[in-house]
What does this fold into?
Amino acid sequence: MNETIEVELKVVREMWYNPDNYNGGYSCETKDTDLIELNEWNNFLIKGTTAQLQKKTTYKAKLEKQVDHLNRTSYKILFIYEELPTTREGQYNYLKSILTENQVKSIFDTYPDDNIIDLIQNDKFDYTKVHGIGEVLFDKIKTKVVGNLQYQQAISFMGQFGIKPEMTVRLSEHFNSAKLLVERVSENPYCLTEIRGIGFKKADAIALKMKFDKQSPHRIRSAIQFVLEEQSGNGHTYVAIKELLELVGDLLDIPEPIIYKYTKEENKRYHVVDEKASLIRLYKAEEFIAKRLSEFMSNSTELKIDIDKFIAEQEEETEFKLTDQQKSFLHNIKKNNVNLLVGYAGTGKTQLTLFLIKLYEELGINYKLLSPTGKAARVFAGYTDRKVETIHKAIGMGRENQDEIVIKNQVIIIDEFSMVDSALFARLLNKCVHDNVRLLFIGDDSQIQAVSAGNVLFDMIHSLKIPTTKLDQVFRQKDGGILEIATSIRTSKKFIDSDKLGIFKYGQDSIIASVPREKVAAGYKYYYKEMLKKFNQDDIMILSPTNKGDLGTVEINKQIQKIVNGEDKASVERFETVFKEGDYVINITNNNRAVTPEKTFTSIVNGDTGFITYVNSETKEVTVDFGHTTVLYAYNELNNLLHAWCISTHRSQGSGVKSVVMIMDKSHKFQSNMNLFYTGVTRCKEMLAIVGQAETINFAMRKKANLSRNTLLKEFLINKIN
It folds into this structure.
């Protein structure tokens, strides 16, 4: 173990400092020369994560001695803080670092017998009595004395428990002050779970280091919430009490009866109804969904249109003959204010949606088209030739005035509805303010479910309370194999024998390369290069069910980067990902205040894809052209970007491209299932290549995802809708 020492030091010079990750290096001097190995300039280097240190300022520090391969000595910062001077002479010199001699003299003349630092800290310092000190200057003094000092003390305190300075700053901002952070954590370390990035286990480790009572109410309540949050990450909106007690008991290693009484108390974050424990935000979201849908349906009015005449006119104009299923949908639309349109790939949802839009336009009814993600919105806009927004943008999520934003349109049509979770759906319904609002939800119940908690489409269908049109008649695709393969996957109809090896063509647009695992990498590279001869990079999508491993998205993107982007490009590295000029990338967060190169604000959403047009290697900033807007990413924002040549099948949901390379390797058997496979294949329009093993394909087709989740929405719908 490296040697640890505690010293008092003074900063001589800042060698470097990166405010993005709070990493810095400083040349220092000390009187504790018996503890420190000085260099030839009689000083020493300290480095590590810390709030920015000030030149000529004295600090107390705990350091760890380090020696590199060239036998050079430096000292890693374990924690460091500025100690407040207690003597009047020390305080005089301390204030001289930010004020003039005359200003400091005026302060000490005004308060000849007081501890100046204590006055400032306790808000007892009246700057109006001091000549030469105004409000602005006093704020500067207070920030120096209180703000910086508190940060240093908080960083030292939290550093004992492995919390890095950048996280301490975030925590201090959350609790409004560094001082309050220390007080709150000392009283209840589980308050840290309020902040994204610190979970129960980290907070619990801190609490146990602090010798916190293992049966503390704070600990048990926090553990209950943690388990409920963890289960919501698996899609569930409630957990049965019996299972909850087992999970919490295993986590805390305390008897279940002790835990049980905390499930019965009033609590702001979770509650229990009928032996089902839910996070209050999810319980209220699903209850609200049922309430609003019930209101909308009870207000249903018939559209003033002859549907049969309209259908006849559209069939003649488009030469597209509607099936009885499709005709029944339009009759439902006429009668009901809330409708579901559920259909598989190739069943005519697109054409039916176009007919519906034409109907509303003929009636002069204003409508809004929505999708859950940016990619899905572009696909929806592509086939309707109409403006489409993401749900997040339509409801103003992330905007400063989001509470004022409402949706005034009478008709709202949401595509790719299987991707919508309970919380988002509740927010959407809350924004619908038209007196006679009409809602249509379009989805495919064979696709994978929403990533977040809830099973909205499934619950709405199976409640039997929402008028639903199910399209299951698939129209054959002329000379095409994509639709036939998709249908075979959905119906678990084998289309290749498991022992087959080789290259097999299906129709004019599909290929299955059934190859040994060691040849899969060469296979996806080959088909990607073949697709590049015909399509642009943003027309091609490689899909993998996982991000990890040699056939996961991260490694595949590294390999494709070598193929399409040369070595001699400006680049920047963040978290072991190298971004280069010319790279194809995807944004993974919604941001209504993204910054443009011109320093104005713009909006981007999760799923937006574009190309890096400029990398500033000095400032480590990256400029991305998303087509509809250009965004400047600072270094600390690059974690919001991923390479987009290969994405996970989950992330692809709602998107559509001309060509897809799909990885179906035996190493992915655990992640693969029919629904994921079907979702991936149905992203493709013109050219499909499946690379893997025939046996893996058949294994996935036999394995259907469990589409049931522990949710309350179905029960709420049954109870609230007549």
About this structure: The longest helix spans residues 135-159.
